[in-house]
Amino acid sequence: MTDIERDVVVIGAGASGLTAANELKKAGLSVAVLEARDRVGGRLWTETIDGAMLELGGQWVSPDQDALIETIDDLGLETYSRYREGKSVYIGRDGERREFEGEIFPVAPETEKVMVDLIEKLDALVAEIDPDRPWDHPDARALDAISFESWLARETDDEEARENIALFIAGAMLTKPPHAFSTLQALLMAASAGSFSHLVDADFILDKRVVGGLQRVPILLAERLGDDVFLGQPVRTVQWGDSGVTVIADGMTVRARRVILAVPPVLLTRISYEPPLPRLQHQMHQHLSMGFVIKVHAVYETPFWRDKGLSGTAFSPYELSHEAYDNSNHEDPHGTLVGFVSDRHADDVFRLSAEERKARILESLSHYYGDEATNPIVYYESDWGSEEWTRGAYAASFDLGGLSRWGGDLRVPVGPLYLSCSDVAGKGYQHVDGAIRVGREVAAQILAE
């Protein structure tokens, strides 16, 4: 059993923990980063599957993600734009496939008006929300007591409009049914990206990718730390008190003055704390849960949809794959589609055999792109719900009432214990940008003390 001493020990080698560790090391403190997996990156994972490079986790860079863009530039990485030339596809309640341009789906004029009105109303509400302190909104408790589904039902009886607006938050972001999270949680999600309109605009929210994959960010951050990163070290016990911490992993013990818990909140209970965490943390962590989404990768000999004048962008709240995009790699002649199956749909298809699930998902993609979509040369499903050290995707969110009740306590240190991850970010919530922001803030907090 290795026994070492450091100023700060970081649990988790994702973007947030590695950012914090680098900031502390630059300031002259000694650090150790313990990672349970045999790789760094957390929810960023670029892997070659059957000869195809796939981004199994997070991958996109938005123009408002300043912290991520600064980090990419600092690491000397290059980005490229997502392919978006041509028309998008929408499948409506009637099952009809329609091609369109712009952001608003090609629905009946009356439904379009309702959707535009809802987006304007949500943008106005979001403008009142501080993403770092949504619980300070004067109506926070009321907004946190009503589900997003109920709020939409209160606003309009146009079912297709409601389902489309819900899609941008429920299916595409929180990956939970809209009855399972509050309107305040939905507003935080939108405020973290600047506006609800930004979530509607796929060209904004899914703007660029990193050449070689977004996992290059944590890989290069880890390289700067060198031998201070320890893989294959799941932490089992944290002993803490006024004198500091002792962190016990499977193969080593680290004694330090501070510990940064840079893991999703749902994993905090995997660690034993001596003494136990305070009652507040016990209650709060019970009301945070991960969403559930399958990220589907389908690689083809060529991007055949482009020959049909399609961008590859597709949406429908009525399809198994509620959204899909051209995800072809930089300068790769092959064509790659990425589709997403979330919340209850994901539950349903995981009750099927792997063969049946693949057939159902590819059939859904064929409704957007044609029969060619059913015959990929490489097919892979990213199932983060089965990842032991993540247990869901994309991020954790509170159940009804939880954000206004405990949100203000999420990032408050408990003695020498600090929390750092994208799940507790304000701006950049559930994105790599948020992970980096929180990592910087926690490091600054420790340095100030």
TrEMBL record:
Residues bound to substrate: 340
A Pfam family: Amino_oxidase
Domain Amine oxidase: 16-447
InterPro entries associated with the record: Amino_oxidase (IPR002937), FAD/NAD-bd_sf (IPR036188), Flavin_amine_oxidase (IPR001613), Flavin_MAO (IPR050703)
Keyword Signal: no
E.C. no: 1.4.3.10
Superkingdom in the source lineage: Bacteria
Positions contributing to FAD binding: 16, 35-36, 235
Primary enzyme class: oxidoreductase
Keywords annotated in UniProt: Oxidoreductase
GO MF term set: putrescine oxidase activity
Coiled coil feature spans: none
Cofactor: FAD
Keyword Oxidoreductase: yes
Annotated family: Belongs to the flavin monoamine oxidase family.
Protein name, as recorded: FAD-dependent oxidoreductase
Organism from which the protein derives: Agromyces atrinae
